[in-house]
Amino acid sequence: NDTGRKRGKVIANDVHTTRLSTLRDAVHRSGLPPTLTSRITYTNHDASAFPFPKSRKLFDAIICDVPCGGDGTIRKDKHILPMWSPNTSNALHGLQLRILRRAMRLVRV
Predict the structure, then answer these.
(1) Are 46 and 67 in contact (CB under 8 A)?
(2) Cα separations (Å) of 81 from 3, 71, 74, 75, 87?
(3) Which of 10, 14, 17, 86 counts the highest number of beta carbons within 10 A?
């Protein structure tokens, strides 16, 4: 019975459509009931310029999985180390910060 319960929505966004497709497939395989999966909306936007909701309502929460330089992957795949440098991570810092700033403008505090 959903009486008195809020019915939340999830916006799953990725700038790469292939990742969105992979996410859709994973959600489908998860076994979650349609009453939950139907609450997911998939969008394809640059997160640093994510559009303001049409409802003009801010989000209750935002989780950002920002691009990274792969330094955490090095411990799992030793073949990455020769191709990695601190510049790889440093080059993404500006984008990570822009995504964070945009999220801060879109979340209710």
Answers:
(1) no
(2) 54, 8, 6, 9, 13
(3) 14
